[in-house]
Design brief:
This protein has about 375 residues and is an alpha/beta fold. It folds into two domains: about 1-175 and about 355-370, Rossmann fold (3-Layer(aba) Sandwich), CATH 3.40.50; about 185-355, Glycogen Phosphorylase B (Rossmann fold, 3-Layer(aba) Sandwich), CATH 3.40.50.2000. It contains 15 helices and 13 strands. It has helices spanning about 15-25, 70-85, 95-105, 120-125, 130-140, 150-160, 185-190, 210-225, 240-245, 265-270, 285-290, 305, 320-335, 335-355, 355-370, and strands spanning about 1-5, 30-35, 50-55, 85-90, 115-120, 145-150, 170, 195-200, 225-230, 255-260, 270-275, 295-300, 315. The strands form two sheets. A seven-stranded parallel sheet has the order 3-2-1-4-5-6-7, sandwiched between helices. A six-stranded parallel sheet has the order 10-9-8-11-12-13, with helices on both faces. It is globular. The protein binds ligand GMT. Ligand GMT binds near residues 120, 149, 208, 279 and 282.
Length: about 375
Amino acid sequence: MKIGIVCYPTHGGSGVVATELGKELAERGHVVHFISYQLPFRLDRFQPNVYYHEVDLLAYPLFKYPPYTLALVNQIADLAKRESLDLIHAHYAIPHSFCAHMAREILEDRKLRVVTTLHGTDITLVGSDKSFWRITRFSIEKSDGVTAVSDNLAAETRNTFGIEKPVKTIYNFINTERFYPQPAAREKFGCLPADCRVLLHISNFRPVKRVPDVVEIFARVRREMRAKLLLVGDGVQRLETQEAVERHNLRDDVLFLGAQDNVLPIISAADLFLLPSEKESFGLGALEAMACRVPVISSDAGGLPEVIRQGETGFMAPVGDIAAMAVHALELLSDDKRLRQMGEAARRRVDEHFSSTLIVPQYERFYEETLKS
Ligand code: GMT
């Protein structure tokens, strides 16, 4: 198949999933064209069957807001025609799904299919907002196939937009042959003493992630044992998070590592992953931790219960229940054997349910069905 993938290029789950999917599809012989405003950060090396097209955006003094979405529509239409694409796969509804639909309208190409994958905040925060509700609903209705990254998100989509259209769940995935714990990761870090526990949080530091809660949980753990907290990512909650670190006098034990392209060595150095999100349609970060045998302590928001098995691969507590999350963290970190067993179970769950070898064929089948429809 000849597939156009439209996605965000930055650190964020939807861009990671889109890029990893494109790379996997290319390895299986499909021709994949990425369209974005910047090279997706996981598209870091040359690979056969993969092409990248940057959206050309004309700067003109009249434009207070350069019309990126129009340029994107134009680019998709040009590419689809030039390369005779079979389908456009839009990751994150806004604005990608709408743009893909408009490109098809311009081409008047009834054979070109549009598949939309809903990732989370495109429904739960942005799409459900009055300013985008109608256009998001329209884009979903006009797509030839719609997938969501969890049953929870599929249900929320149906409720939010009152649509009858089927929304197929296809979970996030990991290439388990490439993503596994790195040896001697802790030693390579250089500043993580062997006798201390390492807790980790990775996100884009947006309010939905509740990053200050991570510090509150860590503060309770730190009172009981030697521990360090690694914070990876950056965003609007960084200042608030730094304030929480200062308030608890934890400056020496909390390392702000900023946004990182390669998280594998960092996850491999951790004992526990914290994800106390307000909303989380799937939680790709949690899955990456599990692949590295790192159990997860999280909230029970959104699709997290579809990823984490309570008491088996980690623990969940209601959103904002810092005390419960801290108790679970302490319980695990004080018991080497349990921590190891949970890490093994976490990895097993990834291998058995979320490996790319299981999930990518689901996308391929979905494309084939959509092309036949
Ligand atoms: O909001 C984010 O965390 C980023 C966002 C994205 O689209 O870039 O992540 C969403 O998509 C990921 C990939 O499907 C999911 O694993 C995340 O759970 C989801 N985030 C939220 O729902 C908050």
